[in-house]
């Protein structure tokens, strides 16, 4: 096989996935976390690094992904540096899968690493209040809208329009922490209650501290390959069945409906292209910088009707052994959140489909069978963008 082979409609498999050290990582650079995750993902695949002819990365370096590729010793002939916030990695995975299917690349590595937490602790940077004051954003910045405030306003609209309650939103944080309890790599594993979520320090009304994601360090990597490589893989493949992407707005005044996220489009496209229905999905990995993100994304992906997300998240439905396991590692609310977390969603989905999550947190279907289908849906900005990927076992 040679890079750029002119074949069409090749199937695309996830060959390797891995996390770098995550959580509290004070003695590593973001480049080192990229490299650590990349080495581990390559080892997970059983392939030699020489097969990699595509590379995708964002968020680090002046000329991303060129600087990171140089650090990793890679010389790709296909690259992607798309940066659309937390959904970056699902969008990149969609781009990479399309390139591989069309014969533009054979093996694409997606890699991410961040020391967001350690940098703040060491005062190498400050926390972000906004994305800047240039371009269209200049018309909102004078009013003091922080990133969190924009999510909070959207949540309030959903509560007003559909009767969603704070207790229902708090249930999402409680169940995320319960899922994290059996994940030895999660930063926060102690159980929490709805009352503890509601009584915490106010961050942006209605969000208290536990409605918001944690801040961590960490990195991860995913290797996508053409079906030709599957016989050489160390583990059974997980197939990319379909994907969809969508963008919505940057200024809140241009957002048509605060209760609808761009996942309503990306999800529909992904499911249509995969040829599956939401009701067939066994588990979902959803970007959860805030509890409301999980709720509205569940609605927009079609797991429940618009306005019914509050009732849907009650009664333990999101737990590992619930009706629809969601964020089975604990998600950004409990496991880790080193900035753009979308690639972690793909890693966790693949591990669950392979049956590698471990005896205490592996999702099982009725009868004890492994899950067959998973969806990973990333959100960027303040519901500005969305990427959704449907994955299936071989």
From TrEMBL:
Residues 244-393 form the Thiolase C-terminal domain. Pfam families: Thiolase_C_1. Transmembrane segments: none annotated. InterPro entries: Thiolase, Thiolase-like, Thiolase_C_2. It comes from the Bacteria. This is Thiolase C-terminal domain-containing protein.
């Amino acid at each position: 096989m040679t890079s750029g082979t002119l074949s069409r409609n090749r199937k695309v498999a996830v060959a390797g996935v891995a996390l770098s050290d995550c959580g509290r990582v004070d003695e590593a650079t973001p480049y080192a976390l990229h490299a650590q995750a990349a080495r581990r993902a390559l080892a997970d695949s059983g392939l030699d690094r020489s097969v990699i002819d595509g590379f995708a990365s964002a968020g680090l370096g002046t000329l991303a992904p060129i600087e990171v590729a140089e650090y990793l010793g890679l010389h790709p002939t296909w690259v992607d540096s798309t940066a659309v916030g937390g959904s970056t990695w699902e969008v990149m995975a969609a781009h990479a899968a399309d390139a591989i299917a069309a014969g533009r690349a054979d093996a694409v590595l997606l890699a991410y690493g961040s020391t967001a937490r350690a940098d703040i602790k060491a005062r190498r940077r400050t926390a972000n209040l906004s994305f800047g004051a240039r371009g269209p954003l200049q018309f909102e910045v004078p009013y003091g809208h922080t990133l969190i405030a924009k999510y909070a306003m959207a949540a309030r609209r959903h509560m007003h329009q559909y009767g969603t309650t704070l207790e229902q939103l708090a249930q999402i944080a409680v169940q995320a922490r319960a899922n994290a309890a059996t994940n030895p790599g999660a930063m926060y594993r102690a159980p929490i209650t709805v009352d503890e979520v509601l009584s915490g320090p106010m961050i942006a009304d209605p969000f208290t501290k536990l409605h918001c994601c944690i801040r961590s360090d960490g990195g991860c990597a995913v290797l996508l390959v053409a079906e030709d490589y599957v016989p050489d893989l160390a583990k059974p493949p997980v197939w990319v069945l379909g994907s969809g992407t969508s963008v919505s707005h940057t200024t809140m005044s241009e957002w048509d409906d605060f209760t609808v996220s761009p996942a309503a489009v990306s999800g529909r496209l992904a499911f249509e292209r995969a040829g599956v229905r939401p009701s067939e999905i066994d588990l979902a990995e959803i970007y959860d910088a805030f509890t409301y993100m999980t709720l509205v994304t569940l609605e927009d992906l079609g797991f429940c009707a618009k306005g019914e997300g509050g009732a849907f998240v009650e009664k333990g439905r999101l737990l590992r052994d619930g009706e629809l396991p969601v964020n089975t590692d604990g998600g950004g609310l409990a496991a880790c959140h080193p900035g753009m977390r979308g690639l972690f969603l793909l890693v966790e989905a693949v591990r669950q489909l392979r049956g590698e999550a471990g005896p205490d947190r592996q999702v099982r279907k009725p009868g004890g069978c492994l899950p067959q289908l998973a969806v990973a849906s990333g959100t960027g900005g303040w519901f500005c963008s969305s990427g959704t990927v449907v994955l299936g076992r071989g």
